[in-house]
Amino acid sequence: MAGMFIDVQVDDAVAQDRDLSKKLVDVCAVDIFAQSEDGALQIVDKNLDECVLCDLCIQAAPDGKVRVIKLYES
Amino acid sequence: MRFYEYESKALFAKHSLPMGERAVVKTKEEARAAAEKIGGPVVVKSQVLSGGRMKAGAVQFADTPDEAAEKFEHVLPIVVNGEKARSILIESKSKLVQEYFVSVTWDGRRKLPVLLFSDMGGIDIEEVAESHPEHLSRTHFSTFLPLTPRLAKEAVGKTGVTGNDLNRLTPIVFELAKLFLEYDLTLAEINPIGKLENGRFIVLDGHVDMEAEARGKHAGLLKELGIGDDETRQARPPTPFELEGARLNAVDHRGVAGNVVEFDGDLGLIIGAGGGSLTLFDAVRNHGGKPANYCEIGGNPSVGKVCNLTKLILSKPGVQKIAVMMNVVSNTRVDMVARGVIKGCIEAGKDPGEVITIFRIPGSWEEEGFKILAKHGVEFCDRSVSMYEAAGRAVAKLKAS
Ligand code: SF4
Fold it and tell me: What total number of domains does chain B contain?
């Protein structure tokens, strides 16, 4: 579920990639990403509005595979 | 951070200031035993942090140990300005021929400590300043240059005290000024210093306030005096609202959002930055507004932290609207604070556009913040609107509603 201000969308292929998922968990300073036991990526809904718009997750993934959406711009 | 009288006196005793025999007691039996040990008439004094003990009847006199026990029972339950006694101080009662006043505090305008001395102690010093200004001396001193007894002598001498009295009062006044600097105090006061029939002087009542930021530096002294780390020691005990604010601030290490002080007005304040809190609080009052709280936000608080603070302030009975205002900020993210207050309003069931009178936080990421505020219909402004003007707009909007 999206936050009140921010939504983060990740393509399935990225979410299933253990290494890339770990990278996303590592780069996000406000814990928006987590990994389940099988290594799959999870979005931590309650932290979405803490996104500082640093774009590190976008840079960590292949072009366009991670999207940070400012809901207040729509 | 305020000290109880018995703690102030314990600090004075460390510095050999002359005082009567005394004991802190918690039971009737202890009161009787203390009075017996002291011998002769005693004073039975409630230990509270606020003033007005005498008026409330929380200071009594007793001639015998039995009477001291009786007075203990009378004084203990008295609530002074909403505060219950922590303990009772039993102290020898001295026959006085004159009372004096000495206080060391900060002069905010001169940015220097100031030593106030009067030969009319025991009464309200503001009254002395107004009706008998020649009996009150004001002596500023430096925090860099060495403090000398000469300064204390000058302060006492300016009120016309001479001879033996001048020589005997000087070391007491000098020691108090030294204490003020040594322990980072914001107030060190003795009122009164009593002159006994034999010409000696003793400290009868004293107040000490320590700068809260200096707690760590003086941890040893505080431990010695029995002051716990969890004791905030404001002029009155913290209210549930203030305790909850402190809790919310403590659970998230990011930034500051939650140092609140409760007032009984109708305008909730989310304010801060570089002295901004005090300036904005005063500005609101200056425009005829009634703040519901004082608060400090700064650093980079998380959205959740600001949201929780907003909900806390909105939950306070009597709060109709809030104002979100800061000085120009360099590191606080405007957009994060905007998200936090809007989220707080919505989670509290309020329309942010209705309940936020004004949002004035000029600083980093303000363009992003303004987009969020505009989307939710919140009135905002940038640094071209002064803090004073923003406060005025907030008050006017509340009054018009
Ligand atoms: S933009 Fe930064 S803060 Fe936001 S989700 Fe990506 S890494 Fe986390």
Answer: 3
pTM: 0.67
Does ligand 1 have an atom closer than 6 angstroms to the CB of A70? no
Cβ distance of B346 and A30 shorter than 8 Å: no
- Quote the minimal CA–CA distance from B375 to chain A in Å: 6
Domain span at B149: 96-225
Last residue of a domain, one of B178, B193, B225: B225
How does pLDDT run across B193-251, given as a tens digit for each residue?
Answer: 999 999 999 999 999 999 988 999 999 999 999 998 878 776 667 888 998 998 998 88
ipTM above 0.85, yes or no: yes
> Are the beta carbons of B304 and A50 separated by less than 8 Å?
yes
Q: What is the pLDDT of residues B15-40, one digit of tens each?
A: 999 999 999 999 999 999 999 999 99
Q: What is the 3-state secondary structure (H, E, C) of chain B?
A: CECCHHHHHHHHHHCCCCECCEEEECCHHHHHHHHHHHCCCEEEEECCCCCCCCCCCCEEEECCHHHHHHHHHHHCCCCECCECCCCEEEEECCCEEEEEEEEEEEECCCCEEEEEEECCCCCCHHHHHHHCHHHEEEEECCCCCCCCHHHHHHHHHCCCCCHHHHHHHHHHHHHHHHHHHHCCEEEEEEEEEEEECCCCEEECCEEEEECHHHCCCCHHHHHHHCCCCCCCCCCCCCCHHHHHHHHHHHHCCCCEECCCEECCCCEEEEEECCCHHHHHHHHHHHCCCCECEECCEECCCCHHHHHHHHHHHHCCCCCCEEEEEECCECCCCHHHHHHHHHHHHHHCCCCHHHHEEEEECCECCHHHHHHHHHHCCCCECCCCCCHHHHHHHHHHHHHHC
Q: What is the CATH number of domain A6-73?
A: 3.30.70.20
- What confidence score (pLDDT) does residue B106 get? 95
